[in-house]
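Before a colleague's protein record goes any further, I have to sign it off. I want your independent view on whether this chain really folds as the tokens say. The record follows directly below this note.
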Amino acid sequence: MARRYLLGFDVGSSSVKASLVDADSGECAASAFFPESEAPIKAVKAGWAEQDPQSWWDYAKMSLQKIMADTGATAEEIKAIGISYQMHGLVCVDKDLQVIRPSIIWCDSRAVPYGEKAFEALGSEKCLGHLLNSPGNFTAAKLAWVKENEPELFDRVYKFMLPGDYLAMRLSGTVNTTISGLSEGMFWDFREKRVADFLMQYFGFDNSLVPDIVPTFSVQSEVCAAAAAELGLKEGTPISYRAGDQPNNAVSLNVFNPGEIASTAGTSGVVYGVLGEINYDKKSRVNTFAHVNYTKDLDRLGVLLCINGTGILNAWVRRTVAPEGISYAEMNDFMASVPIGSEGVTVIPFGNGAERVLENREVGCSINGVNFNKHGKAHIMRAAQEGIVFSFCYGMEIMQQMGMDIRKIHAGKANMFLSPLFRDTLAGVSGATIELYETDGSVGAAKGAGMGCGIYKDHDEAFATLKKLAVIEPDESRRTAYLQAYANWKDQLAAIVRNN
């Protein structure tokens, strides 16, 4: 039988990864990413973060060449292409589809005052009721910064795009976007179910700047002759899926329906849940976007909780507190000797900048309750991992207040989810079952492309071969101890926030 492959790209800020997935077996045939060291981020001023979109194209090309060589795949065997990308970035092109300036990426904070001013001028009821968020530091506010500070460049803007839109444009020569993408940039009005005209008018943007809107799962465009020649692909190959990295991570874990949760815990941590009705947090402590299967007739929202200090705290503890030379696995064994609650030691894990879940307060990381005659390294190490879990649960309570029923958490078996203590504590406090899978963003994008081009009839068929590696059930015999430790942590956090 002839081979059929699906190609997925994942455009991150540190690298671009490509994967070839066998459409029939669902197995990943090969993956590669470039650069092998972290991609550069240019910071001309403090708080700025820019990347050259051309570099994403170059990294995608190198990754593709590697997986094609590893598998011996031919261009004809690739049946569809899907794209995952770093959210909230801004790419501007002129009428010749040439990039006007470097991309202002997700972690650039220069546009914060523009979003805050818009929120104040338009009012919380208008913004939250229609955008489901404050305009904040999202793509629309970044474009407003360009308009005010680089007017000669803004006058040349033909279309604005998100990073995934740019890669699709380079592949196809066509500029378009999705409702999900527009929503993450604050360009979508959920009440009117159209582009947010009121925000466009406030910022002075003409609606012609908005790319054509295509469904997330559809043949959005096709590989053009120039891209086919440069990349070694077949002209006419469909580009049939596109989503931001967090919605796409949910896709890769087969999270599509209300109440389902996807989580990651790398340098920072994310909990992303699907909501089946229009809602928002009045304090904007979590963000609400259109999920991949949102349509004008079906409300499917992705509620995004981000915790900045996750794996970065665990790495700091290993480097600074743990016995020298200890591995992460040995560290987990070492701290397991301490009981739940770390005998009164708590760690507030917010030492990686202002936290949205705390209404953008920067409270720092603190270690509390240490008794010099009782506590040692293992107590601090365990309290740090517990503090990370408790911060997740603190945000999940906000999601529950919005109407989300959290019973199951899907995650890849990676990063903090490799720690039995982390997993058991999260299940114990939340009461949710945790299911761990073998997948990643580029594989999810490839399977999304299979749905978009019709190879798979639905997500159940696309992800039927998703490998479940482990299931962690809440330990009811220890639930009281977990909840008491969490309550103690929340008391400490409340006291710190009051005094901040």
User: Anything to note?
Assistant: The radius of gyration is 23 Å.
